[in-house]
Amino acid sequence: MTQARPRISKAVIPAAGLGTRFLPATKATPKEMLPVVDKPAIQYVVEEAVAAGLPDVLMVTGRNKRPLEDHFDRNYELEEQLARKGDENKLARVQESSDLATMHYVRQGDPKGLGHAVLCAEPHVGDQAFAVLLGDDLIDPRDPLLTRMIDVQQRLGGSVVALIEVEPSQIHLYGCAAVKPTGESDVVRVTDLVEKPDTEDAPSNYAVIGRYVLDPAIFSELKQTQPGRGGEIQLTDALRALSQREVEGGPVHGVLFSGRRYDTGDRADYLRAIVRLACEREDLGPDFRSWLRTFVSEEMHS
């Protein structure tokens, strides 16, 4: 009989990065606050955590990240002004972010990598499994990846990573997983992990993307993990150690994802994400798609 596991309720969102690929826009504004249509990217991520049943969110921040806290806090002056104007629609949208989840914050301090950022969450998470969501990956709510990952972790234990298939020429940009099949078509057992391997050394073309459901044993493993690629403490390296175990924090499984994913960590992909999401909006889509068709047609004939 499968052992009952405590329900997962906490999500961790590392948000201490400098966002150098978006300079000068991110000189004074956190990259997580860059708008995707009319919401900051980070709000999509928090909404995803809440939709998966994780109402307790810890954000791991750094210097110059105060706008993140302000966004998820109340703004009484703005709310009062909108209420006086009778603008109930905008008032509801302003209040939406502050009512989403129970938000907590901790500073990473030294930028020692994703593994170190996750380790900063230990006092808040304790000895329960938890989810980690990276803000550069936006997952379409119609494709509930995180919900599926939590289901797999609750049944099989250990940790779970999200995997996508990429072209072999792109695998050097990601953590890469060696896998073997299980009895489920979208679930694999991870047998090894390599952070950003050279193409010829990659064990597969399965790339790890920014969603994890982690056993608390990850914390003790991270404390023993030496700085790896880039001189940073890599979460991939700690998960690699756990993938070798059957007990005491293992195993590691992967959920194969082929749904809609928007990468906001790259400038060109960020722009594509805005266009895609704007086209699908009921309030913006029809007019925007019409303009886009005209624009593309004119560009092709210019």
Account of the 3D structure:
The protein is of the alpha/beta class and 302 residues long. The protein has two domains: 256 residues, Alpha-Beta Complex (Spore Coat Polysaccharide Biosynthesis Protein SpsA, Chain A); 37 residues, no CATH class. The chain has eleven helices and 13 strands. The strands form three sheets. The protein has a five-stranded mixed beta barrel with strand order 8-11-9-10-12. A two-stranded antiparallel sheet has the order 2-3. Strand 2 and strand 3 form a beta hairpin. The N and C termini lie far apart (67 Å). The mean pLDDT is 90. One of its GO terms (biological process) is UDP-alpha-D-glucose metabolic process. Keywords: Nucleotidyltransferase, Transferase. GO terms for molecular function: UTP:glucose-1-phosphate uridylyltransferase activity. It catalyses: alpha-D-glucose 1-phosphate + UTP + H(+) = UDP-alpha-D-glucose + diphosphate.
List keywords for this structure.
single chain; Spore Coat Polysaccharide Biosynthesis Protein SpsA, Chain A; 302 residues; two-stranded antiparallel sheet; 5-stranded mixed β-barrel
